[in-house]
Amino acid sequence: MKKNKLIEHTGKINVLFSMIFVLLVFIYIISSTLLTGLDPRLLKISCLFLVCILGLGTVWINLLRCQITSYMDNLDTMIDGAIHGREQLTYYDETSLSSIEHKLMRYIDISRSNEQNIEQEKNKIKTLISDISHQTKTPLSNIMVYSQLLSEVPELHKDTLAYINHIMTQSDKLNWLIQSLIKLSRLESGMISLRMENHPVIQMIKQTVSQVYDQAESKNILISMTCDPTIEARYDPKWTSEALFNLLENAVKYTETGGKILLTTESNEMFTRIDISDTGIGIPREELHSVFKRFYRGQNVRELEGVGIGLFLAKEIITTQGGYIQVTSEASKGSVFSVFLPRI
């Protein structure tokens, strides 16, 4: 489109200059005729001169048009080849057009080199994550298994049993932290490919609620939901369930005994909204902008268990799918976390 406009604009300029040139030659012929008298030989020579000049001008214009068209075609081929990763054959000369072509080729080469470096760094990160996952899994599993075996030894001293239980608890926490960090690193480095398809959200919500039901029941927390079974969204069921679980687990953790948690859904043209509201301890307004930061822990929850990665991971999962999370809360008045998933 741009190439056609350039040629059309150049053609208009050439026509304008041609008309001016013809007019000047015509004025010259008339002036010469009037000054020297009406000589047929002079008139023929002048007309022949005019025809020759017009012919040469037409040839020059066509050559210039061909040169511009060839240059634009070369640039188009070069850019198309760069997009598809094809090597280009460049002819070096001293023209300004060739200079632009060479600079464009250099820019394309630099961009391609940067892409290769980024891909190499990604591969290094992937290898590092895989190594960390493999190297920590076996010793941590051994600690957990041996701790379980020790706890089953009869007639252990009360203090010894307490130490063993503490080791088991901390091992579980460490295992959860390592797995969460590995999931987050894989997500950020592009190792995980999200399979986004249209699904009803009610099944995912029910499955996630079942994962925190025992924990909520132990605190006598009532979990209820209002969800239209026809509401759908475009999401990856496995990873979106992971994000929703982190939000629900936080709701159970920070809601006092006898509290309530309500899940509701609604849909509009662009997004499906899932609200998780609780009657928990809430979040101070000045901390709302920080709750989704990595390893952030609020002032009013420092004494409770947690490392501050669950909300960050949930946000990364949802935003990677083209959605977002909002939170509204006040201290001692509960919280509402709203998950927005794209519909299409």
TrEMBL record:
Membrane-spanning parts: 12-30, 42-64
Main location: membrane
Catalytic activity: ATP + protein L-histidine = ADP + protein N-phospho-L-histidine
Cellular component terms (Gene Ontology): plasma membrane
Top-rank lineage group of the source organism: Bacteria
Keyword tags: ATP-binding, Kinase, Membrane, Nucleotide-binding, Phosphoprotein, Transferase, Transmembrane, Transmembrane helix, Two-component regulatory system
Subcellular localization, as worded in the UniProt entry: Cell membrane
Coiled-coil regions listed: none
GO molecular function: ATP binding; phosphorelay sensor kinase activity
Membrane topology: Multi-pass membrane protein
CDD domains: HATPase, HisKA
Histidine kinase domain boundaries: 131-344
Record EC number: 2.7.13.3
InterPro entries assigned: HATPase_C_sf, HATPase_dom, His_kinase_dom, HisK_dim/P_dom, HisK_dim/P_sf, Sig_transdc_His_kin-like_C
Stated name of the protein: histidine kinase
Organism for this UniProt entry: Paenibacillus wynnii
